[in-house]
From TrEMBL:
InterPro entries assigned to the protein according to its UniProt record, in alphabetical order: Ferrochelatase, Ferrochelatase_C, Ferrochelatase_N
Protein species of origin: Anseongella ginsenosidimutans
Matches recorded under NCBIfam families: hemH
Region forming the signal peptide: none
Pathway annotation: Porphyrin-containing compound metabolism; protoheme biosynthesis; protoheme from protoporphyrin-IX: step 1/1
Functional summary from the UniProt entry: Catalyzes the ferrous insertion into protoporphyrin IX.
Membership in a protein family: Belongs to the ferrochelatase family.
Documented EC number(s): 4.98.1.1
One Pfam short name: Ferrochelatase
UniProt enzyme class: lyase
PANTHER family membership: FERROCHELATASE, FERROCHELATASE, MITOCHONDRIAL
Name of the protein in its database record: Ferrochelatase
Chief site of localization: cytoplasm
Length: 340
């Protein structure tokens, strides 16, 4: 029997090369021209991205990226992902070869796969770094990998992780990170997930009649909705809350980062902030369990924008719980997901 290393391909979203407008525009164009992300007719997508989003959003997003950009290390999403790759390689040892890729921009999925081919690694497990499944996140990663290996003469033996929203070690890591902030000293706890257009949830519903059409459709996960993004988000939040002994009335699940005017999964985090401020709540602790590394959506949108929004409404503090980043228990969770 010929012994070879086993390959692990970690894939996260990607980030611009710099916070400069032209790099951010390049990044946004590649990202938003993906039909799994902006799932509208191709003509409308090209018009929206090239005519509106790239020219108008890029300078604004660039200014936000500047706020979180580290002078030496660059984008937080990138440097935490590199660290995760290094630590996972250390943990798994010589029997495995770990590569990191980004779905958009660099390092490209094709180059990471090429590394495996060069090293004669023909067993590969793909681990998209998104706990909850969405076609716009893990779905597009796995599709891209299939497209790339589909061009090879020898198609490798390959497996894909779809999602890991309830992985016990990941749940425990979020709970550990939350405990550091002493949740009982906050008036309310939010679990703020990245949002998703409602039409994408509907398309992922195998029955076509349940998700977003029946009240409370996905507040509980079951065999029929187990790959529903919203159902997985609610389940992740419920599991973290239960590790922290938080009763239901002490926390709210909500969704941030809406883009455009079409309906996205509700409740929107902004609306929840308004309701809580009106109820007289002053201090909020916010988990962002759709992300495994701190990034623009946590460090800027939550820590800066939502904090300012909430203070303007009479609140005192929005405190972000840091992401999984390089927490040793999260590296154990990754190793558990990776080993085969
Ligand atoms: C149609 C638009 C978008 C969908 C659908 C979407 C899904 C989605 N995104 C993530 C994770 C991340 N998104 C990030 C940034 C980001 N997301 C969108 C749009 C959609 N995302 C935009 C336009 C941006 C860019 C930033 C901005 O201009 O505001 C990031 C952060 C990247 C970074 O460099 O820090 C992450 C991570 C998930 C998990 C997801 C589906 C569930
Ligand atoms: Fe996003
Ligand atoms: Fe649903």
């Amino acid at each position: 029997m010929i012994k070879t290393k086993k390959g692990i391909l970690l894939v996260n979203l990607g980030t611009p090369d710099s916070p400069g407008t032209s790099d951010v525009r390049k990044y946004l164009r590649e990202f938003l021209l993906d039909p799994r992300v902006l799932d509208i007719p191709a003509f409308n997508r090209y018009f929206l991205v090239n005519g509106i989003i790239a020219p108008f959003r890029a300078p604004r997003s660039g200014a936000s990226y500047k706020e979180i950009w580290d002078k030496e290390k660059g984008s937080p999403l990138m440097y935490y992902s590199i660290r995760q790759k290094e630590l996972l390689q250390e943990k798994l040892g010589d029997g495995y070869q770990v590569e990191l890729a980004m779905r958009y921009q660099q390092p490209a999925i094709a180059s990471a796969l090429e590394q495996f081919r060069k090293e004669k690694v023909f067993h590969i497990r793909v681990l998209p770094l998104y706990p909850q499944y969405a076609s716009a996140s893990g779905g597009t990663v796995n599709q891209k990998v299939m497209e790339e290996v589909g061009k090879w003469q020898v198609v490798p033996e390959i497996s894909f992780v779809n999602s890991f929203h309830d992985h016990p070690l990941m749940i425990e890591t979020f709970a550990d990170l939350g405990r550091k902030h002493n949740p009982s000293s906050y008036d309310h706890i939010l679990f703020s997930f990245h949002g998703l257009p409602v039409r994408q949830l509907r398309k992922a519903d195998p029955s076509g009649r349940h998700c977003q059409q029946v009240a409370g459709c996905c507040s509980r996960i079951n065999i029929n909705n187990r790959y529903c993004y919203s159902a997985q988000c609610h389940d992740t939040a419920r599991l973290i809350a239960s590790r922290l002994d938080l009763p239901e009335e002490r926390y709210t699940v909500c969704f941030q980062s809406r883009l455009g005017k079409t309906p996205w999964v509700e409740p929107y985090t902004s609306d929840v902030l308004k309701r809580l401020a009106a109820e007289g709540k002053k201090r909020l602790l916010v988990f962002c369990p759709a992300f495994v590394a701190d990034c623009l959506e946590t460090l800027y949108e939550v820590s800066t924008e939502y904090d300012e929004e909430f203070r303007a409404l009479g609140g005192e503090k929005v405190q972000l719980v840091e992401s999984l980043n390089d927490h040793p228990k999260w590296i154990d969770a990754m190793a558990d997901l990776a080993r085969y």
